[in-house]
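Colleagues,

For the teaching module next term, I've prepared a clean inverse folding example: a structure given as tokens, and then the sequence designed for it. I'd like students to try predicting residues themselves before seeing the answer, so please don't circulate the second half yet.
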């Protein structure tokens, strides 16, 4: 009997086969296509301002540990969002806290 794990906040489902996303013809695919991470980060920042590490941990929690974004993915995306004027970074206790503009 298959168990249904349901959908999470980002629209990904989890099932008994684990942490991959099956694409066309059953091929493995990336969790996020190129450029999609910015939308996920904006969704997290919409809920509350966060620093980069919080973004990484919340995303990992939302995906039940099946995907852990790297700092090399999250921080450049946060910088791009700031450069585009979509978020603003404020210094607080030695950390950059990002919030939607």
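(Answer key — instructors only)
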């Amino acid at each position: 009997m298959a168990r249904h794990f349901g959908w999470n906040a980002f629209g990904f489902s989890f099932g008994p086969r684990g942490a991959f996303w099956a694409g066309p013809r059953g091929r493995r695919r990336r969790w996020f296509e190129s450029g999609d991470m910015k939308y996920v980060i904006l969704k997290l920042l919409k809920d509350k301002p966060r620093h980069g590490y919080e973004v990484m941990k919340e995303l990992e929690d939302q995906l039940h540990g099946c995907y852990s974004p790297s700092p090399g993915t999250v921080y450049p995306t946060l910088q791009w969002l700031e450069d585009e004027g979509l978020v603003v970074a404020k210094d607080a206790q030695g950390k950059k806290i990002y919030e939607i503009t």
